[in-house]
Amino acid sequence: MDWKQIPLGPLQTNCYVLFNENKEAVIFDPGGHGDILNTWLIDNSLSPQAVLLTHAHFDHIGAVEDVRQKWNIPVYLHETENDWLMDPEKNGSSRFLGGATIKAEPADVFITKESELQVGSFHFRLFHTPGHSPGSVSFYHKETETVFSGDVLFENGIGRTDLPGGDYETLIKSINDFLMPLPEDTAVACGHGNVTTIGNEMTSNPFLHGFS
């Protein structure tokens, strides 16, 4: 198992592709530039099995349709944001893209609770981690010791909470309850910026207290 970080879209949001020795793959947050992403998948002889969305803000969903239609695969999203893919107001594209909008068809599978998720040969623990957005989800993959956390936790930072549905106290609780208990060497594959680790954020993140 291995994964690749590929910044895509108008904000260079981190898309991640997790793949195994059989060339099966899952895609996290295809934020844009679907042609670039699809070409990379083809060049690496990968066979995508699903698109897993940490949340449905516009910069994480821009290439959803390009990928879904190319590979005929399901899109997973938390049920709280079930209509955000179709609604430029809710996904934020009408607010931030200067008149341009991003829309996609509804997700194929809605996540409803913390649970175990099996996608082909890939197994995840799901954490509902709201605060940045109401439907934010973090996917913990034990085999690679990685949590794909979207915009919940960053290197020395946290997700913004001033967007619709955001809440600072809820976000801090999500991080403390679900991410901080993970092993300290867990890689945090976040939506923007550098990959970090749980241990690094325990000791250096100014928004988190009581873990040093």
UniProtKB/TrEMBL annotation:
Species of origin: Sinobaca qinghaiensis
CDD domains: metallo-hydrolase-like_MBL-fold
Keyword Manganese: no
Stretches that traverse the bilayer: none
Gene3D superfamilies tied to this protein: Ribonuclease Z/Hydroxyacylglutathione hydrolase-like
Metallo-beta-lactamase domain boundaries: 12-192
GO molecular function, one term: hydrolase activity
SMART domains attached to this UniProt entry: Lactamase_B (SM00849)
Cofactor: Zn(2+)
Keywords: Hydrolase, Metal-binding, Zinc
A Pfam family assignment: Lactamase_B
Protein name: Glyoxylase-like metal-dependent hydrolase (Beta-lactamase superfamily II)
InterPro entries: MBL_Glyoxalase_II (IPR051453), Metallo-B-lactamas (IPR001279), RibonucZ/Hydroxyglut_hydro (IPR036866)
